[in-house]
Amino acid sequence: QTLLRSRIVHFRDDGHGSPDAALEYFEDGVIGFADGHIALLEDARAARARGLDLAAAEHRPEALVISGFIDAHVHAPQLPVMGSYGEKLLDWLEKYTFPAELQYADEEISRRQSDFFIDALLARGTTSAMVFTTSFAHSAEHLFEAAYRAGMRLVAGKVLMDRNAPAGLLDTAERARRESAALIGKWHNKGRLGYAVTPRFAGTSSREQLAVAGQLLRDHPDLWLQTHLSENPDEVKWTASLFPEARDYLHTYEMHGLHGGRSVYAHCIHLSDSELERMADAGAAVAFCPSSNLFLGSGLLKLQKLRERGIPVALATDVGAGTSLCQLQSMGEAYKVCQLGDYPLGAAEAFYMATLGAARALHLDRHIGNLAPGKEADLLLLNGTLNPLLRERLRHCRDIREELFMYMTLADERIVERTYVGGRLAYLSPLAESL
Ligand code: GUN
Ligand code: FE
Prior knowledge:
The chain is α/β, with parallel strands linked by helices. The protein folds into two domains: 2-67 and 370-434, Urease, subunit C, domain 1 (Roll), CATH 2.30.40; 69-361, Alpha-Beta Barrel (TIM Barrel). Helices cover 38% and strands 23% of the residues. Strand 8 (159-160), helix 6 (173-187) and strand 9 form a beta-alpha-beta unit. Its EC number is 3.5.4.3. Its cofactor is Zn(2+).
């Protein structure tokens, strides 16, 4: 058993609805994990009183243990397009993203880049993610292989697209069915992995292909659906012109059975009240991608409108449109987006959307999302002193909420000293070697 005595913060499973009320902080806490799961979490004094030998624990009073981050929407093949200049969504896809994804036709590139992507997540404290690959089935294979080796809880799928993209990236309705079914058989529920049916967005799939995606979901009710929805005004108009029979953007998915409680729609910025209500009724979740939405000039999500309707929201980087793979930076960008909507996003809510809130939105909270005994031991040791400027600023913080707010607004992956996945040390910062 690994025993860590440190400052510890997470969200309790009770305290529903309010991240602020659920926030639990141990000024001097102890966490123990064994066999991949959390075995104990308590105040150090209470632990000593009931006879736990604290001498066996590693003592890190200056550090902060938190639950691993969950990234609810990210594109594994898009690291090479991060920071691509000058375009909004549809032109950005044409000019930068589709050509980059075409590189994955080469299996060697696909394999190497998938390994690199998983390592990059772990180095930023992201222990779970919901991931797009490319339309090449082998790219999904490679990502699942890398995640399986790392022991991560990861949900991913092969991208479905059979129109409106370069010929080399297009599959067909029938190939989508065949390749998805094979990947589901091989990877869904293998270890900690899960499969998401992944039509890129309505505009790049024929009606036949969307119907195939819907059939896959009916055949396997425990799969996820991930796609994009209402990200950019031109995209919304274009989608309406492609589907004149649909009432609105969400309806293009509803018509084909691509809705329901295990759906995660990225962006959802320009939705009508009717679309929001239907999403709420279906129990669908939103992946909030603030870095991407600012970088591509897509728009500002009204987080409050989703909250009011009880729609689950999970935070996401949406790399390569997002400019950082680090969820701390997503939180900082989320704060700025919410400020522009006159909603001062608190640190508790921001961290919640990247941990327990995301786990709930993705229906993974039985397994991950916080540090409750019994959950899988995906956790981070954060160390604000690894960044000298931040260290000075932290000296003026009065409580844990202020400290967390500094992490989300002023910090980045340099404060991630260690990442544990399933109780195993999966990343150790080179900056920590001098400690
Ligand atoms: N919509 C369809 N494909 C994509 C993508 O790769 N990135 C983003 N941000 N939006 C999309
Ligand atoms: Fe995306």
